[in-house]
Amino acid sequence: MSMSDGRTSDTKRGTERLVVIGGDAAGMSAASQARRLRKPGELEIVAFERGNFTSYSACGIPYWVSGDVPDRDQLIARSAEEHRARDIDLRMRTEVTEIDVPGGRVRARDLETGAESWTSYDKLVIATGARPIRPSLPGVDAPGVHGVQTLDDGQALLDTLATTEGRRAVVVGAGYIGVEMAEALIKRGYEVTVVNRSEEPMSTLDPDMGRLVHGAMEGLGITMVNDAEVTKLLTGDDGRVRAVATEDAEYPADVVVLGIGVRPEATLARAAGLPVGDHGGLLTDLAMRVRGHENIWAGGDCVEVLDLVSGQHRHIALGTHANKHGQVIGANAGGGYATFPGVVGTAVSKVCDLEIARTGLLEKDAHRAGLRFVSVTIESTNRAGYYPGAALMTVKMLAEQRTGRLLGVQIVGREGAAKRVDIAAVALTASMTVEQMTALDLGYAPPFSPVWDPVLVAARKAATAIREGAFR
Ligand SMILES: Cc1cc2nc3c(=O)[nH]c(=O)nc-3n(C[C@H](O)[C@H](O)[C@H](O)COP(=O)(O)OP(=O)(O)OC[C@H]3O[C@@H](n4cnc5c(N)ncnc54)[C@H](O)[C@@H]3O)c2cc1C
Fold first, then answer.
1. Is 352 one of the annotated active-site residues of the chain?
2. Which of 46, 371, 437, 472 is the most exposed, fewest CB within 10 Å of its CB?
3. Where do the Pyridine nucleotide-disulphide oxidoreductase dimerisation domain residues begin and end (predicted)?
4. What is the pLDDT of residues 324-380, one digit of tens each?
């Protein structure tokens, strides 16, 4: 049903209408959860998605591009038809262009026909995600330059790879998406250069831990260019990209992938007068309700989250949060009750067989939060040293100087490094001290860890440093 007049939804007596803007992780989790709680006769659900896909895993794009996941459809968790079969009126290729908060309605444009119409809501969910940063550099829109935010982006990149003869790829940005894309292109047989403005790759780690990633990437044959600002993208006579230029050098490129981060997509919300924080994301309460608005919720990459370790708000664009936000929103919009208390900043990724993990605060975060802390780094192995396949693992741990409270952990190593950080994520959530962590009853057998797990070794060293009063 398409409403084109701003009528209120009580035209169906007793039926409320929930409108969802954005048809991916947060939006469709919210819609699905609300539908589980309320029957179609009680709650009508209308969802708008401007793209071609719904409920898909952008997280899987690097592995689809690498060929590890052969088929795009494997990344789609639920199709538009499946949502409609569950009584969610999902309108694809339809963009919401305005939110009229006092009028309780949204204006949407059908991107196929250009037709615009208003749809009224009793409850609104804003799940518009994030917008990739695309620097306004000469040549940035040339053929051969790709982002990897959506499945359409992934397909466009694969089409370029299939039709371009040259095998030189430049990845701009060395956050986790840049690093994962470098791996994908190496696996496809490209010569890969990563140009990165930070001191080391993975600025979600402290530089000393990022250096380990740097070394491993060079070991894979990737050329790493750090501390370098891209100034322009050069094009050939055919208009296609041919090189990436920095102030000092040019890097030949047959294909360029941009992975330089995202900003919350809160344009509509801002225009509607909804509260937006210092990081550009919508501000919500614990129930993911937009502050000051009883019947509007927001979640996923378009919101700011509370960092439970520093007590400050941050913008962290991760699917793991988006799905949880969606569940909480759906429960509340469906008449139930749920809360999202905040995050501790856990994230994992990998480049080939090197696993990269972090949770809590980096040194710079701790300084910014005004905390005095100890910082220790240990080297251990992922298995008992004598067990076949034992490989190096480096763990860095930060703890508050006065209280011994765990502040953050970073782990770089081979198999088992990434998910080990979950131990620290739980300890952070429970506000444990490093002394308490040393007594954690973690599983041990030689194929899985040394008798002292690397996380416990780091906790012991941090606890000793606290006792000895070493701090910065
Ligand atoms: C390459 C890549 C790898 C990633 N890997 C990981 C990972 O390993 N782990 C992890 O936790 N996260 C990862 N992420 C992040 C994760 O994909 C996002 O955090 C997650 O998709 C956010 O979900 P969302 O619903 O908030 O936003 P999105 O998934 O961006 O969905 C928002 C939707 O809203 C639609 N929309 C926006 N505005 C409008 C409008 N006005 N009208 C109609 N529709 C609109 C958009 O088209 C979009 O489909 C990765 C992301 C990328 C790009």
1. no
2. 472
3. 349-451
4. 999 999 999 999 999 999 999 999 999 999 999 999 999 999 999 999 999 999 999
